[in-house]
Protein 1
Amino acid sequence: MKSIVQKTQIITFALFGFMLVFAQKSMKLPIDAVFYMEINGKQLNQKINWQKLNPLLHELSKKDKDKEKTSWNDYSKTGIKYDATQYHYASFNDSIQTYTTHFIVDNKEKFQEFIHSTKKKGLEISKKKNYSYVDIDDNIFVAWSNDRAVLSMVNYTKPYKNIWADAEVDSAVAVADSAAVAVDSVYVGEPEKPFDYKEEIINLKEEIKYLKDNIKENNKEITRIQKDIKYLEKNHKYPKENVDTQHSEGEPDVYPKEEEYTEPAIDSAYQKELDSMNIENFKIVKKIAEDRFDLYFSSNLELEVPKAMLSFRDPNSDAYVYTDYGRMMNDGIYGKMMKRFEFGQFFRNAYDSNSYYNLYFDKDKVKLVNNYQHKNPGIQKTISSVYRGKKNKKLVELINDKSIGYYVMNVNGAKSFDMMYDLLQDTGDGEYKKEMELMMETMKIVLDEEAITKIAPGNGIFVLNELKSKKVDYTDYEYDEDYNEKEVKKTKDVAVPNFTFAFATENEGYWNRVFNVMATNKHLSKKFSRIGNFYAFKDEKGDGYMDHLYMTVKDGIVYLTSATENVNPQSQSDISKQWAKDSSKYPLSGRLDIQRLVTGLEKEFKTPSERKTLDLFRKNVGEMYFKTEVKGESIETEMDYKIKNSSENSLMYFFDLFDEIYKIKEADKKPQIL
């Protein structure tokens, strides 16, 4: 009996082991993904008003001239399960860029109808073992099974020669001297190629193809080139009387009359080669998409995401985004270029970070929370120390509720040196590692960090009080039919800022000496002078945005302002007192009243369409507020945008605003009835 039980256990464990081996596993997020996003469909679908959104989407679909006219008008019933989570991710390298979306289908028949209405006419659906797919555009593919669908956009460019590779750089340096000597001999010794009229015709036809993109501006140039082509076809050379065809119209008897010529068709051999390249690229793109579809639909249809990417995800947000900023900047052509420079690793270290975003569409505002985190824990710790500065209550006294906006900074200036040292130090075992270490030690010896920090410890504020309109003279240029230039004196209205920029200092004497030098220097004193307790800058021409500027040092604060009264503490209401209180709490914070900003820029809106857009903005744009602080092992920034219209929520606010702007633009395209 015991033997039977043991055998049964062995068989059971064996079967279970086989099941584990052959069970479908989750599809892992590609290791080269630099962007990942989750859309919280359960929440967002409740905030979308499809009755408003459908007409707009239907109208926009009519603008796609490459597709046949679609009859689809209800985008709320596409067969896609909108109240489920959607997953998006993107990756790139030198030759392949992909963007992929995973979503759930709750009505396969309806979804297939929708795909038929969006794909190009004549494109057939391909059926695979466990899914179907179709290329709805040249580089956009959609695949689906019973309840899952994947959209994949794939771009492919032929790999180029890596001119930034280290090996090539080294070899280039090694032969630099010999190459420099050989250049002259190569150019002198190389025989000049005979003129090939056929090659010249091909080049000119390609030039026509380029000029057609701006046909209205280049009709005259196209006509001239067409004449050159016809003459070359007949005589196999340019006319002697018109060798410089780029600058001469030629004698009337050299070329036949313009109307005798029609636009030549693109050379068939050239077109075949172009089509062949496009077909080859499409085959590669299609194969990449198919491989990704095969991988996903042979899995258990779940996407496995590394935990590190989800470190700051809030399940209550409407959308969550992760970006590998370091790889975005350091991989590809930019990163290879940086490797070529002696201190390129410094910039690579600075970029080597991740960012995480949580987006919320609330009833009365949009909220975006960003967490920044450097990949090196040591550098991140140093960066965090920069954001732990002292507070300065005198600066926030300049905040007032009548201002357009402000930006307050309370950081630790001394720690900025430590951050720079860390970025310079972590440069790997490069060729200049010892030199870099020596340079850093020299900087620490030469720079008196404490003295420098006293000049500007790290507390500052910028307040934009208002925008005033001012007339200025300027010179414009007009041209007659023969392109003769003529100067024309004109006037225009510009928006001049009334502002205050101020920062704390522990060394007032230094700044007083700086301002005194500007007022007494033989050259600078023409524009700088001293008026009482202020040093003044004045532009005599008065044709710029900033023709007056005042500077002074008072009670440990350095002021640069457009008006002397701005240095006094401002009267504050309850709301501005709260802003001032909040600004003292955070390393960085700010506010911008976009409605007042747009009103101040009124003179910049001149055409009827621009005036309509201005009126729309006045009624709808809101107020922006942000704050930054250290949260755990990251730098967290929260940005709030308060809406000011009657939209159901902040998500529909953007659709409503876009719809109004779209209507204004479309109305301008219609011919005016006299």
Protein 2
Amino acid sequence: MHPSEGILSVQLVELKQWSAVTRVEAETADLVYVDGIEDPVKHPALQLSEYHALFTGPTGPLNGLQFECGGFAYLHNATDESVRPLLSVDAPTGPYAHTYTSDTRDKLLDDLRRHFTDEDDYSAAEYVLHRMNLRNTPLVDAMVNSSGEDTVFTLRGRQRKVADDVQKASELILDSPDREAIVPRPQRAVFLVSGGPGTGKSAIGLQLRADLEAAGRTVKYARGSRAFNAAIKENVGYTEAEFRQRFAYFSGFVKPPSPPLDVLICDEAHRLRDRTTNYRLPVEKWGTKAQVDELLDASRLTVFFLDAGQTVRPHDVGTVELIEEAARRRDAVVRRYHLTEQYRCRGSDAYLRWVRALLGVSAQEPHEWVPDGLMHIEGVATPDEMEHVVRTEFEAGATARMVAGHCWPWSKPDENKNLEKDVRIGGWHRPWNAFSEFFCANGEPPSRIWPVHDAGIGQIGCVYTAQGLEWDWCGVIMGDDVVWRTDRWVFQRGKRRKDLEAGVMRVAKPGSLDPKVRISTLDDDEFARCVRHAYHVLLTRASRATVVYSTDAETRRHLRKLVGETDVQGLRPTQSTIPPELRIARRSGGARSRRARRAQSKAKLKNEMMLF
């Protein structure tokens, strides 16, 4: 905010790496030569003027707002003398013509104080960022808001391109939904869409499902994530029949539908298994061929969305190469896409790069987090401190959860439906989310709806119940499965023991207790990959802020060094500092009751009958 006018105050910054410039023409400094750049470039003031037009134009984030706007170039590698043409009397003038170098850094700071109030009023920044469309409505919220009939996603850029191409392919390859074909078309098509967390894969898939269904196509949306499907089912209000008609699991196509579906949308395809197995069913009903083949045989047009960085189990086999090879065996047309622009973590590419570098998922060296105003992260010294932050925001109306690495035993509820407090860090003891299909003694929800039910705030989730979902704030506990030692990560497998007095399992040796990952038959490199990817998922579940705690002292010191200050320049996005009109109301409770669903279904049927 402006210190005296009380209106929005915006400064556009052209940050230059230049160290020296020379003049192109004697009579003007509009164009200059820069060391290392062959062609002449514009004076930064001219670039800033163009940015101003973009920000204030008909589609700009400042359009229609009352604000003060200026701009400046900051050449931190240069001195006044080395860029003299930019500062001369015949250089461009105006509110965007200020140029600062390393010599005038103090003046820059003084000038900024004339444009921005000393008080913490970062709700103004939040408002401008919202106008820049950097935050999509969370998936489940979008489906709830539209009652599942049509989603409210705004597909942008490459997202829109993928959706349009699938729609065109459905018209070219599939038979008309208006009449039965005498000879069905033989063509098949496979779309392979890869991208990191928050690049819009699920948004595209859910929007395609709604649009294709509206066009009369037989279409299903399948995932490997039980938690996400349950969240959709419980919150949108589908009846069991309506849900089964629209959604499925990868394991649901051992017997292919007859006739095949028009379109099958496979989200989280990195979670494909070698073969479909189900401990709830007899072995003779398990799959006998590769799961990818079952999915391809189920439809004429198949869309796969996948992210190689989210494979968290050894038997996650879904890769672009695997699917592409299976598609070619069927002579299917294959189209590949890669999404790069992301909208989770409030569109902060810097945060996602920081997380990947921190965990060693990318080749970039770990580095200190530089606050970008989009995403916030803070390190804490105790689990109590982490829980206090998360609960405070939850009680203020934000969505929030606590998650952890799989480093403690996971007990089922006892005969009285009480949860064991398995996650034990010193005197801080909390239960995992309920290992059950029912509500427990103190109202704790079953695991399938833990991510979206208010009563889930008191339990700890893991990668399997968090994957595919997001909250405003997320507290992440890094356990002893990954610890920092001097200059590298060390990955540890844990052991458990029976506590005879309590009658439950406890930690005998700190480390991973994930039964799918800690097995001795898994080599060390693959074990490390699974652990890295699990924390990659957990650290990217927040849409506003992540609070991270490690059970290991040396790791905590490493994290605090990389995370830096908690509240740099007042950018901590607490619920109280978000403008009221920008707050997304959290849904209270969980699913609609069965009685409410039956009533809704009867009312819908009655309305349909009245049409005749």
